[in-house]
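Lab notebook, bench 4. We co-purified these components, and the gel suggests they stay together. Before we commit to crystallization screens, I want a quick structural picture of the whole thing.
Request: model the full complex, all chains together.
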Amino acid sequence: MTEPDREDVIRCDGIWKIFGDNSKQAMDAVRRDGLSKKDIRQNFDCVVGVQDASFTVGRGEIFCIMGLSGSGKSTLIRHINRLIEPTSGTVYIEGQNVSAMSPQELRALRAEKIGMVFQSMALMPHRTVRDNVVFSLEVRGVPEDRRAKVASKAIEMVDLAGWDAKYPDELSGGMQQRVGLARALAADPTILLMDEPFSALDPLIRKQLQTTFMELSAELHKTTVFITHDLDEAIRIGDRIAIMKDGVLVQIGTPEQIVTEPADDYVAEFVAGISKLDLVTAARIMQPVEMYRQAHGGNPDMTAWPVARPEDKLNTLVDLAVGTDSPIRIEADGAAIGVVTKRALLRGIQGREEIAPATEGAV
Amino acid sequence: MATEKAFDWLNPFAAVDLNIGERADGIKDWAIANRETIQPIKQFLESIIVRIEGALQATPPLVMLVILVMIAWQAAGRRVAGLVLVCLLVLGFLQPTAWGLAMTTLAIVTASVIACAIIGLPLGVLAGKNDRFESVIRPVLDTMQTIPAFVYLVPVVMLIGIGNVSGVIVTIIFALPPLVRLTSLGIRNVNQSVVEAARAFGATPRQILFKVELPLATPTILAGLNQTIMLSLSMVVIASMIAVKGLGNEVLRAMGRLDAGKAIVGGLGIVMLAIVLDRITQGLGRSGRERGHRHWWQSGPVGLIAALFQRN
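Here is the predicted assembly.
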């Protein structure tokens, strides 16, 4: 999945975080003997928060980390801006080693390159919306007139114009998180860290904010690490998804990969209830034209069939299929490359892997 | 020495005499020996107290009364201002000299509270930030609060001599602990996710302290300041034993002459002063949200004046 032109903005190499007084010894023991989590807890009275996590995030990519509470995802994201020091492993941001930075460099990085949004919003109750939004500029000593400009722009971006002089407790939860988003975007950072930003909101507001966020990120192209415990949200927002369980990154892949090729039973169980309609592409369920011909014999007239592209999602194929009794022809660059039969389509919606062409029967 | 006595295992304490009392008496000699070195500091402090008292005494009582009522109105609203007005009138009419005595007491209390704030706030912040420092300072604060004032009265007088400065120091010893404790508590109770957010946006530890922690801890710190003021007032009678003038001295003299009436006058004066200071500082501690106004300049007399100017 690493394309050659891809530029890694964030790179985490073998991040371990062990909590406890004897974390160093526990880490050494893990390196030496490969202790299990249970052994670490029993022998060293330490808890493993993150276990050997490595991943990269490309420029402009939205990388979702999905896991249940206690899986270590919030711990992992805090390593990126070093709010938490790793017990072992390194984090690079645009090639710079974050762990080796001096306190001054680190503060500059946090204020200028990284914006963070928190589940608890964590707005400062004694500051107005405006003063909350430009906090990162204020701590860097940016002059007042420039702060005012940045603030009004950022507040406008999240549709909160006119609320600048209000205090956080005068705002609804959804609006507060918009302020949190504006605060993260104010310094025009390269990276956005979103720690379950919408989890505390009710479903409608959550959907609204997801939309706002997706519009903004389509416009601003921020490299984003997005934490969530909601797989639907991860699939909706993420370019790639990492599934985390008990401190381990179980699987990293595109939403389609996660849903169609779950790495283990844990992931499979997670994705079981997920609708495939907007995820799975025609390319995944189609069978090559040749095989279709072999299976059905002769040379069927395909000109009257509806046409779709290989990257079209199942949803589009269903729309085409309801208007006709014929299979769907998949074309790329003007040439027919495959056929999607009704049976394959229905199985695809179910998420079953019953598309082996050899066993494919007639429609 | 009780070495002659037979040692009794069931009562070991009776047979051993460490002679701590006599050894601790050395502190008196130490205090007398260091008297001279402490004099410049004493004079400096004395001059500050004298200046505060001079200012309070020079203000005509009626002007002072109006100022205090206005402060109360600004800090705590109209109802409290009314209560403060009544208390001050009662105080003034207790006896012809009561107002002047009250101002002397107020000067001592003001000096003590300022000193407590200067010493107590940094200590409280440090205790709030550092667990080890907190565990060291806690027994010290316990001692300061519970040890009878008479115990340190003598060494302080030996070291500094009688008068206002000693009175202020004795008052500080007694009144400082709640400010330190509540400042520490306030800092500790600040929402950690807000502090984390400040860190995530690149704030320095100093900026976190001044822009986040102290503002959020302010209500708790002001509650501590309120307690410090109350305790300072409760020390004025004891402080008058080392020649501090004011309402406390009235009570002390009345006690010496078994003059219950005069003692009641002095005592009531202290109570009135206490109510005034308590209500004003409690008003300061309430958040703007409770008052329905966001900024102090939007309400009270200042708010009225500001509104007038805005209309013009």
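Chain A has two domains: 8-113+189-271, 282-359. Worth comparing against the SEC data before the next meeting. The longest helix of chain A spans residues 203-220.
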